[in-house]
Amino acid sequence: MSHSSHPHHAQPYSLADYGWDGAYERAFAPHRADGLVPARIVRADRGSCEAVTDTGTVRADLPGNADHGDPQAAPCTGDWAALRPVAGAAPVLHALLERRTALVRASASRTSHGQTLAANVDTVVVAVSLAAPLKDGRTERMLALAWESGARPVVVLTKADLCADPVAAQAQVSQVAAGVDVLVTSAGTGQGLDTLSAALHGTIVLLGPSGAGKSTLGNRLLGQDRLATGAVREADGKGRHTTSSRELLPLPGGGVLLDTPGLRAIGLHDARNGLEQVFAEIEHLAQDCRFTDCAHAGEPGCAVLAAVGQGRLPQRRLDGYRRLLRENDHAASRTDERLRADRETTRKDITRHLRATYRFRGRQR
């Protein structure tokens, strides 16, 4: 295999440092018997990808049908792949191992397809800056995405040294992050970083808007300035998109860090289970509603509205739940429309093929 000249991922790292384990080895056995080589995709571009193997980093070519027309199926950072060596040329990506987890958002083009941001992630760090006003709705949205992925979310409040009352902020965020560790940190002073390191395991992805301090946090975890950071505008607390691609980096204490670009939009895509986790208290209350299909919008015997009226459930929380459910249902309906269209296209193709077959047979008689 031809090795790239990247110094970052050269040995002494092995696939085990990138998360390879016995289960992956067993899943890979048929590919190994076919002469293929295991690799983890570090970054994916159009037409090729950078992947780490047990002998170093390689640039591999992607087959033309790598995504089968579905961006969600396209190779992405974190995927485990089977590469076919090619004498005197770059290896070719032959197959992807089944993903254990996948962080998926609605595609930026707002099509009916989802876009996989990262694959085979164990921990999703939802970064929330304390240097800007807290936006509970955005935190709920990112948590829904994290829960839906199948990974474990951890909320990390960054820039605590720039916040007048970090304890109050932590209490506020904890209200919308039930069942999730909410950690207060400052990359500037080092506050909370030991606690954070202890809470992370496996492949860790940093998720959050530009300016949330993800790259600075990542550099502290790495113990060196490997990730590009940029200044934040004072007017709105937003940062420039200094991370333009996704990259996998082994952590000194074990585990792998995956840094993602700051996302301007994190649209939900088929995240119903994630929403049920984030709004677990509403789902629990809904079990006592008179109607099983209650929309909590004025129906008689609605236990959720009763809880709002009694002050046990904030109105803002119910409003956020409804808003994200509507968005998710809309995304699901677009997917259904696409599937119906795909089925109709397939049906027409079969009909055309049958007609052509009958015409051919007719000419043979």
Account of the protein in words:
- With 365 residues, the protein is α/β, with parallel strands linked by helices.
- Among the domains are: 82 residues, OB fold (Dihydrolipoamide Acetyltransferase, E2P), CATH 2.40.50.140; 158 residues, 3-Layer(aba) Sandwich (Rossmann fold).
- It has 9 helices and 13 strands.
- The strands form 3 sheets. It has a 6-stranded mixed beta sheet, with helices on both faces.
- A hairpin with a 2-residue loop joins β2 and β3.
- α2 packs across α6 and α6 packs across α7.
- The chain is flat.
- The N and C termini lie far apart (55 Å).
- Belongs to the TRAFAC class YlqF/YawG GTPase family. RsgA subfamily.
- Keywords: Cytoplasm, GTP-binding, Hydrolase, Metal-binding, Nucleotide-binding, Ribosome biogenesis, RNA-binding, rRNA-binding, Zinc.
In summary, what is this structure?
By secondary structure, the protein is α/β, with parallel strands linked by helices. It has helices at 22-33, 136-149, 166-176, 193-199, 214-222, 272-278, 280-286, 303-309, 315-364, and strands spanning 37-44, 48-53, 56-61, 80-86, 89-96, 102-106, 114-119, 123-129, 152-158, 181-184, 203-207, 247-250, 256-259. Among the domains are: 15-96, OB fold (Dihydrolipoamide Acetyltransferase, E2P) (Beta Barrel); 102-259, Rossmann fold (3-Layer(aba) Sandwich).
